[in-house]
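SEQUENCE-TO-STRUCTURE ENTRY
===========================
What this section holds: a protein sequence and its matching fold, both as plain text.
Question of interest: how does this chain fold, as expressed in backbone structure tokens?
***
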Amino acid sequence: MTKPEPSRNSPKPINVAIQGGGAHGAYTWGVLDRLLEDGRLEVEGLSGTSAGSMNAVVYAYGKMTGGAEGARALLAEFWRQVSIAGSLYSPVGTSAWGHWWTGSWNLDDAPSYRAFSALTGMMSPYEFNPLDIDPLRDIVGRLVDFSVLQKCDDTRLFVSATKVRTGRCRVFHAHEVTLDVVMASACLPFLYKAVEIEGEAYWDGGYVGNPSLWPFYYYTRTDDLLLLHVNPIERDTVPRTAPEINNRLNEITFNASLIAELRAIRFAQRLVREEWLKDEYRQRIRNIRIHSIRADKELLDLSVASKFNPDWRFLCDLRDRGRRAAGQWLETHWEAVGQRDTVDVGREYLDRP
């Protein structure tokens, strides 16, 4: 695939990979909103999982039908509708009073969350949710016309889901993305029945591709990749309470597939940059430049329980955190896009000097 040659004043092309993480996806809403507002980057490829896939689909459809401002407006409307639906249907309620009382958006000590956690630990969604009620499905279905989205050539879209029977990842391309595909990508198995697509059962893509990076190698032209994290990679303390242990296990689990792919990218980088390849093979391997907006500091105060918090003030707080993080990243690293990495993959992800 021939690489584009942007003019001096045109936006720089970049690929964006978005992690999933429930309500914490509002953080990447803020990141995307700030990038769209800035206008100096043009997203060629967009890979998302779970809440990341919803952000990706809403972004791509909004951009396709209304440009940058259309994407910003549709993302804002999506998260507003999530909050409204959550106030009506969420089994854990909202934490406005709890936030006023404790100063925290976490729900770990809320009786409703503890009851919800106990219920999902004892019963499957086939038992407690036999009608498979999912308000998110209605929201996405109202906001996105998938027959239009499937013709999208403005953004190369990749949505990941986990095949239940094989444990393997399937990446759906824009022309394959339907409402079922998006819901499969976000199907947490302790909350919802597996989503059937063409006779195959799917669960949340975060278990095996959070998000998937390999499609950028084969189906896009730009060599710059920006990772939008939701799950902190590192914490300074060792968890000791049950909620703390559950939270850290959640973070490790949903980062594992990403780190595995970054290990492969790092190996490919070394093959090219350290001239391990013969000249005739060197052009066959992409030299991907890695950038990231991490969540280690920005979301460090939040637990896994807060991923179920639909309070509008909380979602706006996350959006604002994401906007600030994106603004700082643009100020510090925009000039490096197209030139060099702004992340040392070996040191920051793989504990390699």
Remarks:
- The mean pLDDT is 87.
- The two ends are 34 Å apart (CA to CA).
- The chain has 13 helices and eight strands.
- Residues 153 and 309 are 34 Å apart (CA to CA).
